[in-house]
Amino acid sequence: MRITIVGTGYVGLVTGTCFAEVGIEVTCVDVDKNKIENLKKGIIPIYEPGLEEMVNRNIAKDRLHFTTQLEDSIPGSEVVFIAVGTPPDEDGSADLKYVLEVARAVGRLMEDYMLVVTKSTVPVGTAEKVRQALIEELRSRGSDLPFDVASNPEFLKEGNAIEDFLRPDRIVVGISSERAESIMKKLYKPFTLNGHPVIFMDIPSAEMTKYAANSMLATKISFMNDIANLCELVGADVEMVRKGIGSDSRIGNKFIYPGVGYGGSCFPKDVKALIRTAQEKAYRLRVLESVEAVNDDQKSVLFAKLSHYFQGDLKDRHIAIWGLSFKPQTDDMREAPSLVIIRHLLDAGCNIAAYDPVAMQECRRKIGDVIHYAGDMYAAIEGADALLLVTEWKEFRVPDLNQMRKLMKIPAVFDGRNIYDPADFRSNGFYYSGIGKR
Q: Could you tell me if 226 and 191 lie in one domain?
């Protein structure tokens, strides 16, 4: 079986590589020539544990190919996955121009039956727009070649994407024909042998499922951050509250850890897009509007704590940051809380030294050299007036407190992820402030 994946971003590259891993012949297509040349050499553009080794293994086995020419891959392919970006417009809606460009190109190039699958996160109704784009291109050719459109949203967690794809909780597929269902069953059979379900449904429901899932998880995060802020005001400890409610099976203990807000490529964009979809139907998703507002505010909480500690006197302070990516095990900095915190610190006149195990190059690409990028976690805190823990990488979890106290000018720690025991730091002479703690 041969398939084509259009787009070699996070979703497209993981999808194509994992399909190749189970023996399917995959061609990944992208317009970025430099990216494609690097991928041919096994140099991948993102950090994802295990992905580079898998890419190289499948290139060597001649199952995974890369090209900039869609016309080279469409002939002989039975399925085309559209996995291009859908960046948010200024109004929060998803920009579908790249998705529809691919659909039109497939319509111009297809020579036989084709199943066109939207893998990108797209609003309800996008598959129908893809269908119309294909029909228009085929009509302009005077062709009546058969095709189907399907929706197959991804549910990959950055930092655990390989495991998520190879052993998924569920596979959601929106289809409108028995032929499309049969092809998708065949394609996903290697991933369902150990009982993981493929849930077939109508296409609009599949499109909505992706947004609803991410919005629910984002809601849990913002709800818990709101509760954490209230805990501080009333003298409660959010960690105790979290354990108390997380043991309720109706709630569960996932996504109820307070912090400095969610970021990344999914939650912020998807929440905005779903809010916009509702607005287009003259309906307000009031819960999600609040989820977004809470999250925006939460990204400034750590800076507010720092400013309060120094009574607003932040000019020329040396502030250290541990963690830049929006979460561990990725170099993704899209909508990362660290970017908001850095902007606040720079506006206040602070000097910043930051360390992240993998995201410093991406941070430099985004904001340049307005901050100092340290060689390791301890180099970042040398002479620091305070440390902000922003991303909970494993290597930050058990720091040498004696070394920290010797290196820091003022032993003040602001824990944006609640990974430390306050008593440990306070007994060693540190000022400690977490999220939602007394």
A: no
